[in-house]
Design brief:
With 164 residues, the protein is mostly helical. It has helices at residues 2-19, 22-51, 53-58, 70-97, 114-139, 142-153. GO terms for molecular function: iron ion binding; oxidoreductase activity.
């Protein structure tokens, strides 16, 4: 099944890369990455907590009283959804303003070499960590912390949606 999917992607990607504007491909990939890399795993973790509470509680390090309330979970979910929709809307607006022709991605019908893939992955990982660290430090500024960031630290027990 995996090889079927990979072979399908192998034949589809050149068509996608030449048929659609690069900005549209970037927006689509970004949305898919958010769904597959954040929303799906967070939802699965929350579903395990809700569907199998005895199993879930058995594996938690913090006591029951330190777990977030349903109100805190829904508030967090709403804040994360709002932030995610806002950032996605800004990305779509920028792409629309450039007629979906500008992108920060390199989009070609050919595949990168393994060396390019490893180098780009390492560069992206390093850049992501640097940007995350810088943004997180900035959010600890006294003028920003209480208004925007304090709620992130209000979760004393791990909660998947609070990760963003």
């Amino acid at each position: 099944m995996a090889s079927l999917s990979l072979s399908t992607l192998t034949t589809l990607w050149p068509q996608i890369a030449t048929s659609y504007p690069p900005g549209l491909i970037e927006v689509t990939i970004t949305i898919l990455a958010q769904i597959l890399g954040f929303w799906l795993p967070c939802t699965l973790y929350l579903a395990i907590d809700l569907a199998f509470p005895a199993f879930s509680n058995k594996h938690k390090l913090q006591s029951y009283r330190r777990q977030p309330t349903w109100a805190a979970i829904t508030h967090c979910f709403q804040r994360v959804l709002t932030a995610n929709l806002l950032s996605t809307s800004l990305q779509i607006a920028f792409a629309f303003a450039t007629n979906f022709q500008h992108t920060l991605f390199t989009i070609t019908p050919t595949y990168p070499t393994p060396r390019e893939l490893i180098a780009d992955f390492a560069y992206a990982l390093l850049l992501r960590e640097l940007l995350f660290y810088t943004a997180h430090r900035a959010l600890h500024h006294p003028k920003l912390y209480s208004r925007f960031h304090k709620q992130h630290h209000s979760f004393t027990a791990p909660m998947a949606f609070a990760a963003q």
